[in-house]
Design goal:
Radius of gyration: 22 Å
Transmembrane segments: 24-50, 62-79, 91-109, 115-136, 148-173, 179-197, 251-272, 292-311, 323-341, 387-406, 418-438
InterPro entries: MFS_dom, MFS_sugar_transport-like, MFS_trans_sf, Sugar_transporter_CS
Keywords: Membrane, Transmembrane, Transmembrane helix, Transport
Subcellular location: Cell membrane
Number of strands: 0
Shape: globular
Distance between the termini: 31 Å
Domain Major facilitator superfamily (MFS) profile: 24-441
Number of domains: 1
């Protein structure tokens, strides 16, 4: 019986990447694309919304933060729910939030309702992080799992680029005070397309095995292309972990790693990213579309970093890619601080793009990929979405801290000192990664990683030739 189960897991892990893998990855990753679109579209909307609704500085901070607070709650609570009711059901439920509240944001009557609808939109955004990561990690062959997970979170960059392009188009066509409404509501379009695309997805066979749903698992395996099997004993997938196990001695190191590194990373990624057009204006770019074009150029450099991450994550490894990326982000921010200290106007455009580009390249090559990948690999199937949701929640708490306090700190201490502080946050993130980092490169199965972490040496460990470096 165990041999048959091992053969099923071996087929999942050792098959070549085929068309059905790419299709299912695309269906999972399309939600992350919408996440990137909806989280970043606010940076363009602010350019038009501020002179239209005349929000106070505090209201602007709440507007930029509301979706992130919702994202934190959605990741934590709906991530755990995903382990209970399944990946596929939650894939559709979370996108309903996207459609309804993206449209509602565009039709909001006043600033208060924009903030509320962006918060509710964030709940759906947060749910998609653990669902997509869990699904991709559970169906992709082990030797390409890291690359596909990096590509999944890389869709955030694609979403932000498309958000910039759409926003530029809308602002070019409509210069009126209501252009921000079209910008915010536009997020409903890709979400609606994603709902239609995801309706035919099979459930994760690993999750079905955990739930002892043998007939459904058989059907799912057929849809994934593995064919029929006589029986499906779940072997070590039958291990049951209550949610509190995330904080047990077995998993506490993992939990510290994934929560703290993601929190520190998102303080930087969202604190700088959402206000990047405004920062560029303050550093010499003209207002409006030119600042958005500069933001787009920086995001394109970040996209190149995402492609590089996909190519190197299995060779460089999750731990060192995260450490080097954090330090690269810190260096970029330090250089921005030095440049801005010598004058906030008239800085060379090429120099600004170079230092912000270094920050963006390091961001997307390093911790953007690795903070998303690590919890999906390090937690067992029964805890995967819940653990990933906890990590994503921590990240979005960091994002909310960054977006809420960045304009206030900038006003109090100036751009250059703010950049120095953020560079220090990046260095702290590198230190956390060094102390608590866990390496999973080498194409290990999820069950082998689990066995190593919980201290079990069994047949599923011995069938792997690579070792988990703890």
């Amino acid at each position: 019986m165990a041999t048959i189960a091992q053969n099923v897991l071996t087929q999942l892990d050792d098959s070549q990447v085929r068309r059905h893998h790419v299709r299912l990855f695309s269906l999972a990753a399309v939600g992350i694309f919408v996440d990137g679109y909806d989280l970043n579209v606010i940076s363009a909307a602010l350019i038009n919304l501020v002179p239209s609704l005349h929000p106070s500085s505090l209201e602007t901070s709440w507007l930029s933060t509301s979706a992130l607070i919702g994202t934190a709650l959605g990741a934590a609570f709906l991530g755990r729910l995903t382990d209970v009711i399944g990946r596929k059901k939650m894939f559709v439920i979370d996108l309903i939030f996207f459609v309804l509240f993206a449209l509602a944001s565009g039709f909001a009557p006043n600033m208060m309702w924009v903030i509320i609808f962006r918060f509710l939109l964030g709940i759906g955004i947060g749910a998609d992080y653990p669902i997509a990561a869990s699904y991709v990690s559970e169906i992709i062959p082990r030797r390409r799992r890291g690359a596909f997970l990096a590509a999944t979170v890389g869709m955030l960059s694609v979403g932000s680029i498309v958000a910039n392009l759409v926003s530029i188009f809308i602002l070019s066509v409509d210069h009126g005070p209501s252009a921000w409404r079209f910008i915010l509501a536009s997020g409903a379009v890709p979400a609606l397309i994603a709902i239609i695309m995801r309706s035919a997805m099979p459930e994760s066979p690993r999750w079905l095995l955990v739930k002892n749903r043998e007939q459904s698992a058989r059907s799912s395996l057929q849809q994934i292309g593995l064919g029929d099997v006589a029986t499906l004993p779940a072997q070590n997938l039958n291990r049951k972990y209550p949610y509190w196990k995330l904080f047990s001695p077995q998993f506490v190191r993992i939990t510290i790693l994934v929560t703290m590194s993601w929190l520190l990373f998102d303080i930087l990624a969202y604190g700088v990213g959402i206000f990047q057009p405004i920062l560029l204006e303050g550093l010499g770019f003209h207002s409006g579309i030119p600042a958005l074009l500069g933001n787009l150029a920086i995001n394109m450099i970040g996209f190149a970093g995402m492609l590089l991450a996909i190519a190197t994550i299995e060779r460089v490894g999750r731990k060192w890619q995260q450490i080097i990326g954090m330090l690269g982000m810190g260096l970029g921010l330090l250089l921005v601080g030095i440049m801005s200290a010598h004058g906030t106007k008239g800085l060379p455009v090429g120099a600004l793009l170079a230092v912000f580009g270094l920050y963006s390249l390091s961001n997307n090559w390093g911790p953007s990929a690795t903070t998303y990948t690590s919890p999906a690999e390090l937690y067992p199937t029964a805890l995967r979405a819940g653990g990933h949701g906890l990590a994503a929640m921590s990240g979005k708490v960091g994002a909310a801290i960054g977006t809420f306090f960045l304009p206030l700190v900038k006003q109090a201490v100036g751009v250059s000192n703010l950049m120095y502080l953020l560079a220090g946050v990046a260095v702290l993130g590198a230190i956390v990664s060094i102390v608590f980092g866990v390496e999973t490169k080498g194409g290990q199965s999820l069950e082998t990683i689990e066995d190593k972490i919980v201290g079990i040496r069994g047949e599923s460990v011995n069938r792997q030739q690579t070792n988990l470096q703890l």
